[in-house]
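Intercellular adhesion molecule 1-like: structure tokens wanted.
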Amino acid sequence: MVWSFFFFGLLIACTGNPASASCSLQISPPRVVVRFGDSFSANCTSSSDQTNGMGWESTHQGVDLTQGVTSLPFKIDSVPEWKMEPMCYVNSRDGDQCTKTLPVTVYKMPDSVSLNYSLTKVEEGQKYYIQCDIANVAPARNLSVLWLKGNTIIKLETFNESSLSPVSKSSVLTLTAHRDDDGAEIWCEPKLNLWPEEQGPPSGPPVRSVKHNLTVLYPPTFNKLEDETLEMTVGENMTLNCNAKGNPPPSYRWEFPKFTKEWRDKEEVIEPILTLPFELPGVYTCTAYSNRGNVTKYFNISEAPRSRTTFGVMVGVGVAVGVLLLIAGAYFVAPNGTFSFNKGGYQPGTPSGPV
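Answer:
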């Protein structure tokens, strides 16, 4: 019974069905990826010593049965069809036939890749879309579309398409605008997944769309968000940094403490960074504004402790000198108002010796 099943299986393998190990047919290369209109070639070899003849069946440029060979080439000068299934066959001496089909994928790169988008400028937080249109590509079932922002892939889309002839496809990317995306480049890149990763398409650079530069509108935000408390040294320059980011770029308005307002009103300050020899403490206010909004920052400036200590030392020294002078006056000034370094040993009007 076992031998009967073995013989039956061998008979099926060699009566026109796809080749099995017993048919010993090999095609090189084992599969073909070819551009529409290009040429390709393959070779069919039989390792059986019972080969009577070989041939190729094809809808285009088939090869008739050739007697007495164990290897037979097949060549297409220009691929004219989108579906091709050339088949190598071998006839054995006992009248059996084995066959093997060569997988052929016919492709066409897109005629064009373009972007269409709903808006050229978007508000922060607003949803928007960009559409990638790929014209006349085949086979679309092997097509994938990569969406890139900078060097980062943000979306990958594939297609369930049965047609082998060229079709046009579209991929839509939906995003929510964020200020970090302002100025970013976004584009789509179609790819036919037909070749091993290390091989890639036989020639030519990758097909990609024109890059879209994204513009996101958002209100001003300070680079350093917190209000600042600073200490000044009288007469020395101090810098107040009010730089803010925003699109459109913000303008700036400064307000000064009341006792410096009249002095400052004489010259308008519109720069984000203020460098001055601050003389008086107080609260200095900066507002960054645009047609998207405004934000205010406060700089609370106080006198540095070192300045107050120096002044105190000077006052203390003055007081100490005054006290010393008072003590010296009390000790060295005589009752008659004269000054003497020997107050106890000198009496006015007393002779100092014999006459």
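Residues 42 and 74 are 5 Å apart (CA to CA). Residues 1-17, 307-313, 339-355 have pLDDT under 50 and may be disordered.

Cheers.
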